[in-house]
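Before drawing any conclusions, I needed to go through one protein's amino acid sequence and its backbone structure tokens, quoted below without any editing.
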Amino acid sequence: MLLKILVCFIAGIGAGLGTGFAGMSAAAVISPMLITFLGVEPYMAVGIALASDVLASAVSTYTYGKNKNLDIKNGLVMMVCVLAFTLVGSYTSSLVSTTAMGNFSTVMTLILGIKFIVKPITEPKSRLQSSSARQKFIRSALCGSMVGFICGFVGAGGGMMMLFVLTCVLGYELKTAVGTSVFVMTFTALTGAVSHFAIGGAPDWLMLAVCALSTLLWARIAAVLANKAKPKTLNRVTGIVLVILGASVTVVNLIK
């Protein structure tokens, strides 16, 4: 019992920091830890992780929105496309072998972390500032479709793909990118959690409660700190968090 609570709490710390600082999905941290250290069945571990992500992403969205670091209009467009094309990607993956892409999310986490440390993003790129509302709508729809398809095909990486697209492709500065990312992830995590529990049955309620509360607490702390930090400092802190989480998940995956 004590080991279960300890593992879930530590997993929640990593997931919460990743969510609050970088809009990262809790599934990237919680799932491998529950599978490796507690022997939880993988499908149920992902369900618990997604359920933990819902409240953490919601409270992070509130914090970023309160500080005006959230693009709801284009975020809604992206969310609809992500949800739709996740189903398309999931169906496609059932027809094709995806073994070679299994570590996609972890690699993306490490690369993005190094990128934020080496080359911080401190303000919106010119292509975002000069874009019309119609151009932003089309780009959000296309990028949401791409992120959704990749997430459905690979089965992971939603938060990291979203952050990469918002900062590197669409040109958002980091705070607005994270705020918009957690907004989208709130609804995608809720959809995923409901479907997992509907198919796989009820979860271990103690595990879910500890993971969810720990993730919520640390996501709130991280989001508050992130919105107060200077852009360059936030980039580097976010980069360090991503590199540590990416390396930790790699080690956990090697252990199992």
Remarks:
- Confidence is low (pLDDT under 50) at residues 98-102.
